[in-house]
Each structure stands twice: as C-alpha cells, then as structure tokens.
C-alpha cells in the first residue's frame, strides 16, 4: 500500500495495483477459495434464481387461470339441479321388499323339511391298511 496526500495533510492508503490474477486464499475451514471460481458460481446462482423467478411468475399466472376455471365450474355446478341417483345398496334392498317377494316369502315354511338330494360321488376312495 502506498500513502497518497490529499488536500494538504490527509493520508489515505490505496491498494497496490497489480495485473496479476488474484491468488486463492484459505478460509477458516482450511479449504482454498479461488475468487474466479466464486465469481463463476455466483453468476450461475444468479441465473438459476432468475429462472426460478420466471417459473414462479408463470406458475402464478397459471394458478390464476386455473383458479378462475375452477370457480366457473363450481358456479355452473350450482346452477344444475341436483338429481339423486339410487344407490346400488338401495336398489338391492328394495327388491326384497316388493309385494312379489313378500308373497314368495309367505309360501316358504320353515317347519316343513324339504328333501335334499345328494349325488353319489363318481368314485370312492378306500384307504389301504398299512
């Protein structure tokens, strides 16, 4: 550093000018930091942050458009009258409560045993004595 006189008596230190590239310095963790590499990484980080901001802006626009479309669909849904459909359970349940089924149930008697026919097996198996 050299001393430069300014306005009669004030001394300011100015850095020594050099055309040499900055030399890597060691940080507290003992790793060597290269200033040119840090500059390159900083530029890449700035570009990535710019891309992220652009994507977020595009997404924000998309969300607004989609939000409007969804709101429109909800409003149209409110205008359509609600049509109730019978569920499968309800259809199955009501089949057994019809007058026809009631008449059929009354003809079935639990006190009378019905003959059961059991078919003969095609072949019989006899275990041999061992």
UniProtKB/TrEMBL annotation:
<protein>
    <recommendedName>
        <fullName>Reverse transcriptase domain-containing protein</fullName>
    </recommendedName>
</protein>
